[in-house]
Amino acid sequence: MPSWLKNTLALFSVPAGKPDLIAAQITAFTRQLPLLYFVLLANTLFVAATHIHVAPAWLALYIPALLTVLCIIRIWSWARLPRRELDHEASVARLQSTVLMVAGFGAAFTVWGLTLYPYGDAYQKLHVAYYMSITLIACILCLMHVRAAALLLTITVLVPFSLFFLTRGEPVMTAIAANVIIVGLAVMFVVFTHYRDFARMVEQRTELRRRQEEAEQLSRENLRLANSDSLTGLPNRRCFFTSIAHHLSAASATGETMAVGLVDLDGFKAVNDLYGHTVGDQLLIDASKRLMAHPGWNASFARLGGDEFGVILRGASHQAEIENFGREICTLLRQPYLLPNVTAEISASIGFAAYPMAGDTVERLIENADYALYQAKQKASGTAVVFNTDHALDIKKLNQIDQLLRNADLDREMTVVYQPIVNLESGRTVSAEALARWHSPVLGDVAPAQFIKAAERSDLINRLTVLLYRKALADMKSWPKSVGLSFNLSARDVASQDTILHLAAITLKSGIDPRRIEFEVTETAVMADFDQALSALTRLRSIGLRIGLDDFGTGYSSLGYVHRLPLDKVKIDIQFISDIADNRTARSIVKSVIDLARNLGFASLAEGVETEEQARIIHAMGCGFAQGYFFGRPMPGADLGRLAAGDSLSINSA
Ligand code: C2E
Ligand code: MG
Ligand code: MG
């Protein structure tokens, strides 16, 4: 089809390809078409009235009556149109039929008007011409939102009207016809312009709405991303905190109970280190799927980062109930994970804090759940612990320790005691481990496990370490030169370059041979930041100080790293020594650690030797050194000096 024909046909068709324009046209017509039919009807009745006595009844009465009925039907049809329920196809069909109907009505009224024209006097004739032209203009204006309808009506009325009056041979009527043609064309021009603007406006509105929807979609997506964990698809830490706050306010309004839980995977780090991050990631994804699919409880899970998950449990209030849930989760996560090329087994520990007993703010619940998690890990990995009143008392005590320690006169209240370290071959005390003691004027003696942690929490640790080290060096001055010192460093000391430099400087200044001194670091201290630990230990070693790895065997990934550390000694943790006499597994672990140490060129020391039997066993296994109540309890520096001086203790005479 040639394009001009296509364009011309387009002028007479409704824009079916533009749903929004069609909808807007239907809306406009719903308002304007009843008006159109009303104008048409009223004007027609006026003309019929002026011609009732001059024209035959069929023309002046019956036809107008029929047209009136048709008009009323149309008004009614538009007025009751269920605009919102009309779908696109129905709207197009309606507009198409309306365009045709408008043309039909135009033709019918035109024929009627022109048939009526010969009846009556000049006034009546003029009335007919006036009626036809003014009604035409009014109807075009009512149809201006649908160009096809306006155009078709103009043609069906204006063409016969003009031809009729131009050929009457009456100059006045000819002039009227010319007037109407001019006005008709001008109105058509306005209609075309208006229609173009109208269509454009609808298009812009559609575009605006599309963009708005896009922006909303984007912001919804952003919100989803900001609140979900990209690896597992679970809600993330941020979302978890917001949800707790949300459920808390709901719970406080309704009196409902809820519990917040923190889940930590035990042994995940080892899987990650051993098999790589891809396998580690897959394990986390599998673990998340298990959690999400866990039925029977009103619980929602989140991934808080690393191998830590969070859970909000609603509707459970009793400790036993929460523990039950926790046990189920632990069992669920303990099942083997079938990962690419490997089957991994890990366990999970959970700490819960229930609202309102364990706190009524997000921070307090998280803090207490964290404390319960810590307890779960201490107790035995793979269990769930619910925060209880005993824990609250413990925390109170810890806070008190924090407070008192911060205000303590460290120099006066802190002392150092020494536990002998014995060479198992010679039976002689060759060294001593410095152990800090705090006598608080308020609390009395506080265990080092407690105050060292408190000092780490309150940033006091570096100062305390330096102070204790000075005291230990001073005590050492009275010892035989053959006796060395083992001194514990905390993770925060290893992480602090300043402290490391300070300790090195103090050592050099003391005049004591650095080779007599060994710093003990724990695996956790080293693993916290391996590179920093490596550089700190290397620095200490470069001036002749020695390094021992304390509590060996309590961490997870030790074996992979141990050979990269500049070590002199490995201290086998007390937990393996305490049941070495009756436990074959403990024996084989200790044996393999001793062998490993020997192969790597490190000495080995057994901690916590309490019986002669234990001493014999480890000696037989090739362990070089030992320490424990069997050889001597921690004692003041002067006593240690005396013991070492007169020491001729051997394993056989102990
Ligand atoms: P650690 O370094 O592993 O010290 C050994 C702990 O085991 C000491 O407890 C010691 O008294 C205890 N012990 C020794 N022999 C036996 C035994 O035969 N049986 C039993 N059951 N226990 C034995 P202590 O003095 O309570 O110290 C606990 C922990 O506190 C130490 O563990 C160490 O991690 C930390 N610590 C102590 N003093 C210091 C210090 O000056 N600085 C730092 N950073 N930490 C210290
Ligand atoms: Mg130690
Ligand atoms: Mg130890």
Secondary structure: elements and pairs:
Elements: H1 3-11, H2 19-51, H3 57-79, H4 88-116, H5 122-142, H6 147-166, H7 171-227, H8 237-254, E1 258-266, H9 268-275, H10 277-292, E2 299-305, E3 308-314, H11 319-334, E4 337-339, E5 342-344, E6 347-355, H12 362-379, E7 384-386, H13 389-406, H14 410-413, E8 414-423, E9 429-440, E10 444-446, H15 448-457, H16 461-476, E11 484-488, H17 491-495, H18 497-510, E12 517-522, H19 523-528, H20 530-542, E13 546-552, H21 558-562, E14 569-572, H22 574-578, H23 584-600, E15 603-606, H24 612-620, E16 625-627, E17 635-636, H25 637-645
Parallel strand pairs: 6-7, 9-11, 11-12, 12-13, 13-14, 14-15, 15-16
Antiparallel strand pairs: 1-3, 1-6, 2-3, 4-5, 8-9, 8-16, 8-17, 9-10
Helix pairs in contact: 2-3, 2-4, 2-5, 3-4, 4-5, 4-6, 5-6, 5-7, 6-7, 9-10, 13-15, 16-18, 18-20
Q: What key phrases describe this protein's structure?
A:
binds magnesium ion; binds ligand C2E; 17 strands; 654 residues; alpha/beta; eight-stranded mixed β-barrel; five-stranded mixed sheet; disordered C terminus
Overall morphology: rod-shaped
Number of strands: 17
What does the radius of gyration come to?
A: 48 Å
Q: Runs with pLDDT <50, length 5+?
A: 648-654
Q: What integer is the average pLDDT?
A: 92
How much strand content do the residues show?
5-15%
Bound molecules: ligand C2E, magnesium ion
Q: What is the overall number of helices? A: 25
Q: How many angstroms separate the termini?
A: 115 Å
Outline the biggest β-sheet.
Answer: 8 strands, mixed, barrel
Side by side, the strands of the main sheet go 8-9-11-12-13-14-15-16
Derived from helix and strand composition plus strand pairing, the structural class reads alpha/beta
Helix share, percent: 55-70%
